[in-house]
Design brief:
The complex is a heterodimer.
Chain A: H1 5-34, H2 40-52, H3 55-66, H4 71-80, H5 88-113, H6 116-124, H7 129-137, H8 142-157, H9 161-167, H10 177-186, H11 190-215
Helix pairs in contact in A: 1-5, 1-8, 1-10, 2-5, 3-9, 5-8, 5-9, 6-7, 8-11, 10-11
Chain B: E1 2-12, E2 15-25, E3 30-35, H1 41-49, E4 56-61, E5 64-68, E6 73-74, H2 77-80, E7 83-85, H3 97-103, H4 112-120, H5 136-148, E8 154-158, H6 166-182, E9 186-190, H7 194-200, E10 203-208, E11 211-216, H8 218-222, E12 231-243, E13 246-253, E14 256-262, H9 264-267, E15 275-280
Parallel strand pairs in B: 3-9, 3-10, 7-8, 8-9
Antiparallel strand pairs in B: 1-2, 1-4, 4-5, 5-6, 10-11, 12-13, 12-15, 13-14
Helix pairs in contact in B: 3-5, 5-6
Chain lengths: 224, 291
Amino acid sequence: MIDWTPLILTFELALVTTLILLVVSIPLAYWLVHTKSRWKPVIETLVSMPLVLPPTVLGFYFLIAFSPANAFGNWLQTNFGLKLVFSFVGLVLASVIYSLPFMVHPIQAGLANLPSSLAEAAYVLGKSKTTTLFKVQLPNIKTSLLTGIVLAFAHTVGEFGVVLMIGGNIPGKTKVASIAIYDEVEALNYAAANRYSFILFSISFCILLFVYLINGGYLKKFWK
Amino acid sequence: MITLDLSKKLAAATGAMQLRLQLSIEAGQLVTLYGKSGAGKTSTFRMLAGLLQPDDGRIEVAGQTWFDAPRKINLTPQQRKIGYVFQDYALFPNMTIRENLQFAVPKNQNAKIIAELIEFMELGQLQNRKPLTLSGGQKQRVALARALVQQPKILLLDEPLSALDSSIRLKLQDYLLQLHQHYELTTILISHDLGEIFKLSDRVYQLEAGQIIAQGTPDEIFIQKKVSGKFKFTGEVLKIEKEEIVYIVTALVHTNVVKVIAQTNEVKDLKVGDKVMLVSKAFNPMLYKLA
């Protein structure tokens, strides 16, 4: 019988990561669209770095930074009792950074493509920037938000390198599905590896199909 | 009373341009900013609405300072309470027509003006539809109604009727005049359409490259030659044809097509699309009562 814990852990991780990303990315994308700061290119580059870096590089630096043997990790542990290496919290934090561009980019593009007169009309009507963001801007970029949510979720489900570096392979704690597959293959247990792989394959396929159906307008009747 | 004294460096199509203008508009007037695109008309609106900060100068409205560069006063758009109809209407696509109007209601104002505006602008049939399903003229009416929900004293209209065909345009001009009078607005209009300007505005400010080059009543601005015609209409040249020794000029006056005979020297610098005035002096008009 299949051990469901890695799969459940994977989806827990993806869900928590996506929720945090949504909260973090909306203000970040909004700032990137509206700022005239000369730091904008630097911040944009940092946000996009996980797209091009090997996940192992990210994982390696997280491992170094979070290690209780080093200053930052030590500070976290003594002040907050937080141990980020080989823990679920550490996985979440690493995943948030690793999937950040997948959430920020669609939202940023969505906001930038909205005619600026929409927000301006709301300001002239006496509405604050916050009200305008939640009542006018975000509701009009629903498809971008959905794309961001789904891509960030799917990308987190699919991560391997970062998770392996920072989380290791602790069953029920950091052993997510992608690592479980690797584990089973190493143990020459192909049947189990296939079960995990097939489930991940099907779910990823369904998630992406869902996005394309919605953004292509095929589900217009149900999504308004 | 609106007093503007603005200076702002703008990036125009032809390079940097220095906008420098002073004007004062009396309360209750309907005035037009007229001029080529890129002359600084929309930028003037944006500065008045607080969407664009002038480099220097002052904006005072009804005794209240909205902007004062030396004293570092700059009210936000939210504080200025202005009615602004954008060129692209800027209706919120996620809301129905009624929701668009409701969104505009200030916190401590009751919403009964919405019913009044829906009635006035004949939007009853449309109120549950989304803006994307409306025609240009319908969107225009919604945009006008929405701009008036917070009962501003100033209404800014950025080429509101330019995209509409002429019969809808005439109807909307009537709406505009009625609204202007009913709500005792001070209205500033950006327009290129001479017929519209003559019909609607008390005064015209002609802008060129960020400066006011002429101001006065529409008659003073556009009718250079002194004519004491009994009938004056403005129109647009549709066609110029040579017929033996004279020319026949076909012009569009409001919705009527009129043919006028012209001499060679009169058509010399006339081309299709030119704005013209048609005057009749020699004949006495006949009067017929319509049933």
